[in-house]
Amino acid sequence: MLIDFEFSNFRSFRDTTKLTLEAVKAYKEREEENVFTVANQRFLKSAGIYGPNAGGKTNLVYAVAFMTSFVRNSASRQAGDPISITPFKLDTATEKAPSRFQVTLLDGTERFRYGFEVDFHTVRSEWLFATNLSKKHSRERTLFLREGDEIDVKPGGITDAKDLKKRTLENALFLSVAAQWNEPTARRVLELMNRIRPIWGTRDNDFLSFSAELATSSKAGKVLLEACRSADLGIENIRVEEHDFDPNVPGVLSQIPALKVKNGEGDKLVEMRVLMEHPKYNGDEIVDRVSFNLMKEESEGTRKYFNLMGPILDTLQNGYTVFIDELEAKLHPLLTRSIVRLFHTPEINKNNAQLVFCTHDTGLLSNGGLRRDQIWFVEKSARGASTLYPLSDFAGVRKDTQIEKGYIQGRFGAIPFLGGTDALDRLMEG
Q1: Number of alpha helices (DSSP H) and beta strands (DSSP E) in the chain
Q2: Residues 135-174 pLDDT 10s
Q3: Distances in Å between the alpha carbon of 408 and those of 362, 404, 413?
Q4: In this structure, are strands 99-107 and 2-8 parallel, antiparallel, or unpaired?
Q5: Whole-prediction pTM value?
Q6: What residue spans of 356-411 are helical by DSSP H?
Q7: β-strand pairing of 354-358 with 321-325
Q8: How many CA atoms lie within 13 A of 314 on its CB side?
């Protein structure tokens, strides 16, 4: 599970930015639903991030995506391969400086703090620390420290360190290389990183194949169907059909939204066609079911809900941490609220899965069941630098404070400052 995520000099974020899912000790509301405890420490099941368009919310999710992807894939890099990093470009002091990323993770009672700094060509530094929370007054111990090509592995840190250091290129992470060679501690941290999933809510079609495959599963398919039924989408059943196609036809692959590798038949590709069955009436009597092609006949909202529910249910089942940008896009506010509520329902979220979402749905501030320490804001300065900060930074915010009203009125910042229309009026008249 995720404790916190920290980064700097990435896209619109110039300075150090930290998101934490540790619960504020003084807040006691919604303890049973929204908080869980491990080793006497309290953690949050969700966090919502608000801010204006172009404020930086999406870039925070991009930061998560970069770190998880780089950790997962850097061991396969070739010598000289550039690193696709995007530093803050609006300051001469940062445009060529390294970008920094750090994550704190919990596995049982073992806490890991891992991070690195990279520029366009090299890993500048890297570090890994661990703390055993089951021991009272346990201190954080260093597993390894890296500065450039110098990697200092402490006793009990990483096994076979001498050979692993030789295999580590200047543009690859030592942790990733060690995990590739099945070093136990590195594998453990990599597996924790793989449990963090970034999702873009406006690119939900990316998950159509995943959700379609889930719908064919006997148990998971029933859960997915019930989720769609409870969303009042008018759906009675979900079917997934497999259709052959000729992959040699120019452009055909780009026209098929969901593909599947059919094993046992030369690993050929087949199209997965999702069909939503709706009741057909004769008067007040249901006489049949009619199948609607999800991608051709259903609404944008129905498509997004189905596509997102696959990874969301997978997250809940496995206790993952999911970051979703633009959660509310295309969805009715009640559906958005129902997705957040899934993570706050102990009977459903049995494995303490975590949801971090970016949204413009201010209704969740009043009716979304969020605690004060689950609400964050992002705003951008006049010089184009984004800043992330929590609602808990503001004094005088009680659990009965009308947070939605205060946010709309600008009490907490992170809202667009709209100019007048005089200039536009003159241009239109001219």
Answers
A1: 13, 19
A2: 888 899 999 999 999 999 999 999 999 999 999 999 999 9
A3: 8, 6, 9
A4: antiparallel
A5: 0.94
A6: 363-367, 403-408
A7: parallel
A8: 19
